[in-house]
Amino acid sequence: MKKYLMILTAVFLCGNAEAQMADVLGSMAVDGALTQGSYRGVGQMQQALGRVQLIQDLAMLNAQIQITFMGNYTGLSKDVLNFEGLRGITWDVGPAAGGQYYIELSNIDGQTCFSCKNPEWNARKVEINGGGDCRSTGNKVKMYF
Predict the structure, then answer these.
(1) Whole-number mean pLDDT of the chain?
(2) CA distances from 77 to 14, 43, 80, 99, 102 (A)
(3) 44 vs 21, more confident
(4) DSSP assignment string, the chain
């Protein structure tokens, strides 16, 4: 009888350990899924922050051009400006017909390209990929002011 009680006790202890192991593995799986979602969220947040910084940099560039040249944009070039913004983006500026100027951004992603189409910029005209849309990975946006 004692032998049967020992075996029965061992069976119950093993069953209890399996339940605890299943709980631990389950909580680790949930934690891993939450962590993966958090990393994805951080990546999306960093992309959004980059777009906000781009918008701020463009506003500063636009203000610097307007203050420096005060309506006469004939001598406008990237070399004349003292501008350090637009990190990681190829950009250019220059005079345009009719007393206007342009800001050109190259190799930008679709979301950033779409944010450049925003009418809040007060750009008179926005050219995307020479008349296309923001569907490629290396978009080229030219904004006329």
Answers:
(1) 78
(2) 77, 35, 6, 14, 10
(3) 44
(4) -HHHHHHHHHHHHHHHHHHHHHHHHHHHHHHHHHHHHHHHHHHHHHHHHHHHHHHHHHHHHHHHHHHHHTT--TT--TTT------TT-EEEEEEETTTEEEEEEEEE-HHHHHHHT-GGG--SEEEETTT--TTSSSEEEEEE-
pTM: 0.66
The sign of the dihedral angle between the CA atoms of 117, 121, 69, 82 is: negative
Assign 13 a pLDDT band (cuts: 50, 70, 90): low
Q: Is the dihedral of CA 85, 90, 93, 96 positive or negative?
A: negative
With contact defined as beta carbons under 8 Å apart, do 79 and 92 qualify?
Answer: no
141: β partners:
105, 128
